[in-house]
């Protein structure tokens, strides 16, 4: 299993994933924290998948959501599930929408990239971040390249070390608000929350 296999895998399993994905919103506390720190309600959901439950919850919280996913089947499901939100088919690597957002979210998506591609994503995050925007993403608790499973198929994951994530965030103009490795209140997810410095302070 390689990083290059991720999008074809999610394309194959899209409908099964959408049906079986946990929709209890165990992510709610972190999503609410993200919105509490965000200067507005424009949200970029990077690796949005089928849109339920996260983008759906954000819409319910009066957010203007733009989803991005590289798997056409996921984009189709997102548009079917959430016709009131915009969804763009694009690989997150090299994303260039020419717009800035108040919150950027990469939940259970960014960590499918190789370590090198993850490092190169931080300028992309910064380019889409409005002043004082927040960035939230999930990672592993420490550096490594484990193989997980989705709908019975193997999937690649990778993480940098916490110190390297902090350095990447700092170099891109973000200050860490919180990092909770393997949060027991969030189904064991390791969650980063950061805020963009004002351009003059970056």
Provide a descriptive summary of the structure in words.
Keywords: Methyltransferase, Transferase. This is Class I SAM-dependent methyltransferase. The model has no long low-confidence stretch (mean pLDDT 94). 38% of the residues are buried. Strands 3-2-1-4-5-9-8 form a seven-stranded mixed beta sheet, sandwiched between helices. Helix 1 (6-20) runs parallel beside helix 4 (72-81). Helix content is 32%, strand content 29%. Strand 4, helix 5 (115-127) and strand 5 (129-139) form a beta-alpha-beta unit. It is an alpha/beta fold and 202 residues long. The protein has helices at residues 6-20, 28-37, 54-60, 72-81, 115-127, 162-171, and strands at 42-46, 64-69, 86-89, 101-106, 129-139, 147-150, 153-156, 174-183, 189-196. The protein is globular and about 40 Å long. It has one domain (3-196): Rossmann fold.
- Shape, per Cα inertia axes: globular
Please give the order of strands in the largest beta sheet: 3-2-1-4-5-9-8
Catalogue the unreliable spans: none
Structural class of the helix and strand makeup? alpha/beta
CATH architecture: 3-Layer(aba) Sandwich
| Mean pLDDT level | 94
Give me the CATH fold name: Rossmann fold
Count the strands? 9
Report how far apart the termini are: 38 Å
Strand count, sense and closure of the main sheet? 7 strands, mixed
Question: C-alpha Rg, in Å?
Answer: 16 Å
Approximately how much beta-strand content do the residues carry?
A: 25-35%
Helix content: 25-40%
**H and E order:** HHEHEHEEHEEEHEE
Q: Helix count? A: 6
CATH class: Alpha Beta
> How many independent structural domains?
1
The CATH superfamily bears the name: Vaccinia Virus protein VP39
